[in-house]
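Hey forum,

I'm writing up a methods section and want to include a predicted complex as supplementary material. The small molecule is zinc ion. I've pasted the protein sequence and the SMILES. Can someone with a working setup run it? I'll credit the forum in the acknowledgements.
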Amino acid sequence: MALPLFDSLTPFMLEGGAVRGRVIRLGAVAQTILERHDYPPHVARLLSELLLAAGMLSANLKSEGIFTIQVRGQGLVPLVVVDAVYGGQLRGYADVQAESIAAINAVADYSPRALVGEGAYLAITLDSGEHRYQGIVALEGDSVADALTAYFVNSEQLDVQVQLALAHDGPWRAAGIMVERMPNEGQDVEAVAEAWRYAKAVSGTLSDSELLDPLLDTPALLYRLFHEQGVWVYDPQSFSVGCRCSRERILGILTGMKLEDRADMVVDGKVDVHCQFCNKSEIFSPEEIGLSAKN
Ligand SMILES: [Zn+2]
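Reply by user p_vandermeer:
Happy to help. Structure tokens for the complex are below, copy them as they are.
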């Protein structure tokens, strides 16, 4: 069942302007990305939380640009990567080797650090086309929400509170809320501090089941939470599943390579280029990539 209220991000601002926030909810988009690989449940959860994180960050893209989040370490899941493109295209995958699956399933409680292992970190890259900016934080705390909060506090000097929730009682649903204290510009310091305390306390009362409720639309959810203070709800931005691995693009990359490198890619008379995001192969003949058949 498609969830028409999901696959969107809704920005909001509390009355008074001291606190803003965003609610993200993913349904079919999360399901499509997760079902492309047969992930162990903990890995599916980690990937979904990172999709939420990338979706939340993508609200900051002002024009063409890509937010990429990578989680890397030396443990059972050495890499998870997700990205969000301006306009709402999301993609992502987790690197899971077959020999690690039993050990991943033996991890009792979900913990990103336990999965990603020694040296785990979270890197967030913004590539605007003209500029590339990267912030890195250790993957500390027990959740991606904690890591994301640490990223905002340490790299962006922003006060935020993040909550992420997941359900897999049918197709995947994933949702999150972030509240953020606005920079204090000439406002009454005590009033801003009070508004921030209120926003954190009230958003902390939101249950995972409310966040994930397919029958509760986001404006109604926000009104339920913040009706005492008053809340401005902005137009949502929608998400879709997207990848940049078109056959034409791959062909362009292949034919741009040196002849000897192209020849090295031929196995059993063909070139097989696999996209992990889509879990799909594009097969080319040697002739198609500018080699003669005998290569
Ligand atoms: Zn792809």
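Some notes you might quote in the supplement: Residues 243, 245, 275, 277-278 surround zinc ion (CB under 6 Å). The two ends are 49 Å apart (CA to CA).
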